[in-house]
Fold these 3 entries.
Entry 1:
Amino acid sequence: MERKERRTGPDRGEVIAVLRRVVAENGSDFLPQYGLATLCMLAIAATTAFSAWIMRDVVDQIFVEERWDALGWICASIIAAFVIRGFATYGQAVLLALVGNNIVARYQTRIFDHLMRLDMAYFTATRSGQLAAQIAQNVTGIRDLLNMTLAAVARDAVSLVGLVVVMVWMDPLLSLIALVIGPPLVYAVNYLMRRLRTVTREAVEVNARLLGAMQESVQGIAIIKAFTMEEVLAQKIAGLIAYAENRSNKIARVSERLGPVTESLAGFAIAAVIAYAGWRAAVSAEPPGSVFAFITALLLAYDPVRKLARVQVNVERALVNARMIYEILDLEPRQEDVPGAKELVVSRGDVVFDRVRFAYDGHRPVLRDVSFEARAGKTTAIVGPSGAGKSTLFALIQRFYDLDGGRITIDGQDIALVTKRSLRGAIAYVSQHPYLFEGTIRDNIRYGRPDATDAEIEEAARLANAEEFILQQPQGYETLVGENGVSLSGGQRQRLSIARAIVRRAPILLLDEATSALDNESEAKVQEALERVMKNRTTLVIAHRLSTVVNADHIVVLEDGMLVEEGTHRTLVKKPHGVYARFYRMQSQKAEDLLEYGAGQSLADGQGLEENIEEKRG
Ligand SMILES: Nc1ncnc2c1ncn2[C@@H]1O[C@H](COP(=O)(O)OP(=O)(O)OP(=O)(O)O)[C@@H](O)[C@H]1O
C-alpha cells in the first residue's frame, strides 16, 4: 500500500470519521465508566437547572409573599443541590481521568507494537527523535478527544438544554431575545476552527522536529564538541524554537479570539434582556420571581455556552493529534509473512544467493544478479569497496527488505516464504557498532535469547572473552550499561555483542567486522572470541582485516553491486589480473612498508582493505 501523503488540514468528513473511529475503538470497552460519568454529568446539569428554577420561589415566596415556612425547604433543597453537584463533579472528573489515562496507555502499547512490526524502510526514512516526540504530543489528543466530547455533550449541552427549558418556561419572549446570539456565535466558532486545523498540525510537526533535533544533538554530543559545531547547531535549533513559539502564539491568538466574541455576545444578550424586563416591570404589576429565575438561568447558561464553544475548538486540535496517530497505526508493514508461511528448518545451514537483484528505491540497482553459496559450517568473507553492497547483502539475508529479483535460500527454503520470526531466529548478527540497551550486562546478553539461563549467559560471556571485565565492574553481571549506565570500551562492547550472538545458538552468523582499530590486546581477545563463535557455524563476514580474508573458506568480491570474483585466497591470488590478486599484492606491500616504518600490528594486519580496493579501481 502506498503511504499517505501528508496533507495540511483534514476536511469535515474526515474529522467525523476519525472521531467515529476513536469512539468505536475505545468507547465500548469503557461503557460502564462512561455510563457512570454520564450520570454524574446529568446530575450536574439537573442541579444547575434547579438552582435557576428555585430563584422564582426564592423571590416570590420569600421576598414577595413573605412565606417564612417555605424558607426551610428552599434552603435545604439549595444545600442538597450544591452538595450533589459537588460529588457529581468529583465523580465525573475522576472517572474521566482514569479512563483517559487507560486510553493513553492503550495507544502507547498499540503504537509501540505497531512500530515493532514496521519494516526497516520506514525506520531508515524516519528520524527517531522526531517520531518519539510526535507520538508523545499526539497520544494525549485521543484521550482529550473522547473526554471533551463526552463532557461537552453530557454536561454542557444537557445543562444548556435544561437552562433553556427553564428560561422558556419562565418567559418565552425574553428567551427569544436571549437566543438571538446563537447564530453569530456558531458562525464565529466555525470560522476559528477552520483556522486552527492547519496551524495545530504545523505546531505539532515543528515541536516534534525541535525535540527530535535536541535529542539527536545530545546523542551526537561527542561529534558536536569535536567539530565545535555548538554554535551552528544552536543557530539551527534557535530557528526551530522561534518557529515553534510563533506557531504556539498563533494557536493562542486564534483560539483565544473566542473569548472576546462570546463575552461581547453574552453582554449584549444579558443587557437586552435586562432592558426589556426592566421596562416591562415598570409598565406591568407581574410578580418579579419569573424574571429573576430567567436571569439566573441566563447567567448560568453563559458558562456551558462558553465551554461548548471552546470545546469545539479544543476538539478540533485533539482531532488533528488523533489523526496523526492513526497515520502511524495505518502504515502497513510491507513485509508480512506470506499466507501459510512455514517455519524455517535449518538442517545444515547452506545459504545460497541466486541471481539476487535489489534496489532500495526500486530504480537504482544496488545488487545486480548476485549469485554465490555460503556453505554450511564454513566462513565466507565478503570484500569490496565502500558502497559495493556488502551491508545490503546482510540486510537481505535477514529479510529487512524484499528482493526485486532472484531468491535467497537457506537449506533450499526460500527465505521469502518462511516466517520472519523463524528466519531471524536462525541468524545471529554481530554488528560493527554493537548496541547496548538500557539495562544490566546480563540483560544485554540475554537479548540474544530471552529464555537463556544465567549459566548459559555466563558461559557465553566466558567464550566471548568478556567475563574478566564483567567481573571487574561494580555489580558484575548486574551492572547497568546503556545510556545512563557504566561506559564500556569499544572492544568490551564488541565482546558483549559476541556473547549475545553465542547465547542465541543460531546456526548462521552474520559478522560485520569492526573497521575501527582496537589496541592489540583487545583486538586479540575479540578475534579469539570471534573464532570461537564462528566455529561450526555458517558465517558470512564483511571482512576488513586481511587475516580474516586469508583464513576464510571462501571469498566473494563485490564491486558496484556485482559479484566480480569468488574463490579461496589461494585460487584468487593466482589470477594475475584479478581484482583480488591486485588488491592483495597492494595490501601486502603496504603492510611491509608499514612494518618497515615500525607501524602498529593492526595496520600491518590489513586495516584499510577497502581503501586499497578503491586505489586499485582508481
Ligand atoms: N537504506 C538505504 N536506502 C537507500 N540506499 C541505501 C540504503 N542503504 C544503503 N544504500 C545504498 O546502497 C549502496 C550499497 O550500500 P551498502 O551499505 O550495502 O554498501 P557497503 O558495501 O556495505 O558499504 P560500506 O562498506 O561503506 O558499509 C550504496 O550506494 C548506498 O548509498
Entry 2:
Amino acid sequence: MEDLQKLLLHDHGLSVSTLPEKGRCLFTTREYSPGEIILSQEPYVSVPNKTPVKSRCDWCFTSSNVKRCSSCQVVWYCGSKCQTSDWKVHRLECQLLAKLEKNRIKSLTPSIRLMVKLYLRRKLQNEKVIPTSVTDNYNLVKDLVSHISEVEEMQLVLYAQMASLVNIILQWSTLNIKEIAENFSKLACNAHTICDSELIPLGTGLYPIVSIINHSCSPNSVLVFEGRIATVRAMQTIPKGSEVLISYIETAGSTMTRQKALKDQYFFICSCPRCIKLGEHDDIEESAILEGYRCKNHTCNGFLLRDIESKGFKCQKCGVVREKEEIVKIASEEKTMSNKASVALSSCHNKEALDMYLMVEKLQVKLCHSFSINLMRTRETLLKILMELQDWKKALTYCRLTIPVYERVYPKFHPLRGLQYYTCGKLEWLLGYTDEAIKSLTQAVDVLRITHGTNTSFMKDLIAKLEEAKAEASYKLSSMDD
Ligand SMILES: C[S@@+](CC[C@H](N)C(=O)[O-])C[C@H]1O[C@@H](n2cnc3c(N)ncnc32)[C@H](O)[C@@H]1O
C-alpha cells in the first residue's frame, strides 16, 4: 500500500485515505480540469460477455475477424497480437478447458471464467512467469471489499456452487472453496462492466485501483473504456483535496430507486448531495415526475401524489384526482403489453416488436408524466428498432422526444447525454437537415470531449462528421450567394 501511495501521489496527484463510513477513498492532491485523465488501468483479469450471436476477442473485445482458439474451441482472438498478449494465462486455461465435458463448457459463464483466470494469473505471478508491479499484483485483489458477512443466504449458496465449479475446473488440491466464494462476492461489488465508446457492454474486468473509487449519484468523474483499458476522467473541475467519485449505477432514477440499487449490490446507503434530500419536497416531486403518474387533465403538467381522502392520486398543481382503479387498469395493460413486446424484440421480430412498443408508448403516455423514465426507456427502444428497420425519419422523431428527458435526468457532461446528441446529429445529417445536424453534433462534441477525450477513433469520427456538416453548410451558403 505504501508503494501504491507513492506511485499515485507522484504519477497522478492522488492519494488513498480510509474513512470509517466508506472504507478506502481516492483523493486528489492537485486540481483536475474537466476532461483530464485522473487514472488509467489495464484489468487484472477480464472476460468478454457470452452471446450466441457475437463472439469477441478475449483480449481486446473486438468482434471483427475473430477466430476460435483451435485447441480449446472456447476462446476467440482477433489475431496473433492479442493471442500472444493473453498466451501465458490462456495456455493454462486452454488445457483446462480442453479437458472439460461439452455440457460443462456450455454452462461456463463469464463470471466462472473470470474467477478461473484470476487464480491462473495469481499462480503465474507467484511463479514469476508474469511480472508483478505496484499496480498489477494479487495483493490489490486481496484488499478489495467483499461484504461477505452481509450477503444473503441464497446468494451465498450460489457463490458456493460457483466456487465448486471453479474448483472442478482448476483441480488444485490447495484451493479453498470459502476463499473462492468470497472472491465472487468481491467481483459483485468491485468488477466493472467493460463498454465500448457507445456504452454498449462488451465484457467484465477487475481493475483493482479503479475499484478504490467510491460512488456518488452526482459524481465528479466518469469511467470509460478504450478497448480493455479503463480510464477515469474528471467531468468538472475537481479542486485539490476532493474525493474522486464515479457513479456505480444508472443515476436517472428516483432517490429511492438509486438507494435500493446501491444497497442491494454494494451494501451501503448513499449520502451524496442528491441522496441526503430523500423525503424533502423537491425530492418527492422529482420522484413523482420520474416514476409516478400524469395528471388526468391533459393540459396540466403537474405531478401526482397519493391522496388519503379519495384513495386515488391527486395532482399537486390543479388538484384533480385520478382514481386508483383507472391507474391500476392501464398499468396492468401496459405491463402485459411490455412483456409481449420484449419477447418479440428478443426473438428479433422487429416489426411485431415495433407495433407492440407503440402500444406500450400509447398506454404510458396515458399513464405517466411526460418526463417519466419508463416512457423514456420505451422511446429509446422504439428508436433502436426504427434504426434497425432503417426508418430514419421516425427514428429521429423518437430520438428528439428523448432529449428533453436526458437533459433533465443526466448532468451536462454525462456520456449518455452526449451519445444521444450524437445519434440525433447522425440522423439529422443522414436526412439532410444540415443546420440541425451541426447543432446536435456540436452538443455531442462538447460533452463527449470531456467524457471520452479526443484521441479515440470514435471521437475522431465524430469530430470529422461535424467538420463535414459545417463544410456542407458553408458550401450551401456560398452557392446561395452566387
Ligand atoms: C468498489 S468499492 C470502493 C472502495 C471501497 N471503499 C474500499 O474500501 O475498497 C465499493 C464499496 O465501497 C463502499 N462505498 C462506495 N461508495 C460509497 C459511498 N458513497 N458511501 C459509503 N460507502 C461507499 C461500499 O462498501 C461499496 O460496496
Entry 3:
Amino acid sequence: MASPPDKSKSIKLERYNSYIRRVNSTKLLNASSKLVLRATVLVALIVVLVLTLNYPKTGEPHGVQRQMLSSGFGAWEKQVREWGRARREGGMRVLVTGAAGFVGSHCSLALKKRGDGVVGLDNFNNYYDPSLKRARQAMLWKHQVFIVEGDLNDTPLLEKLFDLLPFTHILHLAAQAGVRYAMHNPQSYISANIAGFVNLLEVAKSANPQPAIVWASSSSVYGLNTHNPFSELHRTDQPASLYAATKKAGEEIAHTYNHIYGLSLTALRFFTVYGPWGRPDMAYFFFTKDILHGKSIDVYQTPDGNQVARDFTYIDDIVKGCLGALDTSLKSTGSGGKKLSPAQLRVYNLGNTSPVPVGTLVSILESLLSTKAKKHFINMPSNGDVPYTHANVSLAFRDFSYKPTTDLSTGLRKFVKWYLGYYGLPQRLKKQFRPLPS
Ligand SMILES: O=C(O)[C@H]1O[C@H](OP(=O)(O)OP(=O)(O)OC[C@H]2O[C@@H](n3ccc(=O)[nH]c3=O)[C@H](O)[C@@H]2O)[C@H](O)[C@@H](O)[C@@H]1O
C-alpha cells in the first residue's frame, strides 16, 4: 500500500523553492541596477566629454578657460590689457595671430622690444610638434607677451579681445602652412586660411576703431608663373597647390573687405622663410634632423634633371619687412561696419632675391653639421611644389626700405646653432662633432 504523501515535506520544498526564487530575483535586481548605474555613469562621462570638447558654443572662449582656471578668474583679461599696452609714445597695440608660430613669435618679440603693445593668439594645433610652440610661448612670456589660446574661428573670443583692447593693428600670421600637406588634409586649409581669415575680417570691420591689417600671403601664389623674378604685377591665377589657392583666395577676400568696409589691408608674400625657432615641417629643418640621425633625405629635381631652387629668406629680414609694413600701413577708414572713404590695399613680395638650389642648401648643412648627407635624388613629386621661386622686392624697398641682408650660409649657420642648442646632438655624433665657430 502506498504511503500517503508527506505534507510537511512538500511544504518545506515549496518554501525552499520560493526562497530560491526570491534570492534569484534579488540577484537579478542587483545585477540590473548595477548595469543601469554603470550605463548612467558612462552616459554622464560622455556628456561631460562632449561638452568639454565643444566648449564653448557661447560665453567664454575655448582654451582661455584653461588659462582662467590656472591663473584665477579675470587674470587673463588683466594680462591682455596690461601687456597689450604700448610702452612708447605713439606705439601700436598689435594683435598677432599665430604668435606661437615661427614668424609670429619673432615678430611679437621684435614689436615688444621696441615698445609696442602685443597680444598673441594661437590655437597650438598639432600640425607639428606643439611642444616647440609651447617653448616659443614660454620665451615670449618672459618678455611679457601673453598668448591667448584660441582659434581664429572663435567669434566670441575675437570680439572679446577687441572689447578688452582697441587694437590699432593686426599682424595676421596664423594659417595652415605647408605646400605638400594640403594633399593630406585639405579641409584644414579651408578652415584656417579662408574661414578663419574671413572671421577675423568680420570682427575687424565691426571694431571701433577698425585696425589696419598686415597678413601673411605666400610666394606660392605665383604657381605656374614662368616670368622671372616674380613681380607683384605677374599673374597669380594659376596656383599649383590648394595651399597656394587658399592664400590667393585670401588676397581676393582682402580686396573685398577693403572695398566694402574700408579696412586697410597689406598682404606679404613670404618666400620660404627659415631660421632659428623654425618650422619642423620645412625641408631645411627636417634635412638637418635627418642628416644628424643618419637618415637619407630626398632631394627633389625637375623632370629635366635640374634641381629645384628656392629664394630662401632669413627670418630677421622677414621681421624687418613685417614691421616696415605695419609702420607704413594707413588707418582703416570704416566705422560702424561701413566704409567712409577709400582705404589702403597693398601686396608685397618679401624674399631674398637670390634663389639657391636645394642641393646647395644640403651642402651647406653638411659642412655646418660636419656630416655627409645620404642624398636620394628624385623627381619632384606632383604634390603642389613648383620648380623655383625668385622674388623681386623693389616695391617693398620703395615703400618701406625692405632690403634682405642675410645670405643662406649665414642664416643656416644661425639656424644650426639654435637647433643644436635646442635639441642637442645625437649620441653617435658627440665625439666627432666640431663646435661651430661663432
Ligand atoms: O614660400 C612660400 O610661400 C612657402 O615656403 C615654404 O614652402 P616651400 O618653399 O615648399 O619650402 P620647403 O617645404 O621647406 O621646401 C623647400 C625646398 O625643398 C624641396 N624639398 C622639399 C622636401 C623634400 O623632401 N625634398 C626637397 O627637395 C622643395 O621642393 C623646395 O624646393 C613653406 O612651407 C610654405 O608654408 C610657404 O608659404
